[in-house]
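Design job #97: recover the sequence.
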């Protein structure tokens, strides 16, 4: 059984027991969180919402918050003497999916 949920403008395919890194939500560890924007559920047959499934909820528990590894963005235009190097670290909230209903 899996579900497709929407959070922060992104879509995630989740199963029970999965640990997913979402964009930072500003929640304390061991906080329960519900995702009500469920786009699809597969449980022996596929149910697709238009745009969301009525009454479907995916529950999770916050494990921790943190920062990812640094991502380096390097752009170079050859023969133009033009270079650009930037980087950033994404803030995330790690959530364990506990129940799909």
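Job complete. Output follows.
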């Amino acid at each position: 059984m899996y579900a497709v949920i929407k959070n922060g403008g992104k879509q995630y395919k989740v199963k029970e027991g999965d640990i997913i890194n979402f964009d930072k939500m500003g929640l304390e560890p061991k906080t329960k969180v519900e995702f009500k924007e469920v786009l699809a559920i597969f449980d022996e047959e596929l149910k697709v919402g238009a745009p969301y499934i009525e009454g479907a909820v995916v529950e999770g528990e916050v494990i921790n918050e943190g920062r990812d590894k640094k991502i380096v963005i390097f752009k170079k235009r050859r023969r133009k003497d033009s270079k650009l190097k930037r980087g950033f670290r994404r803030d995330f909230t790690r959530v364990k999916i506990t129940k799909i209903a």
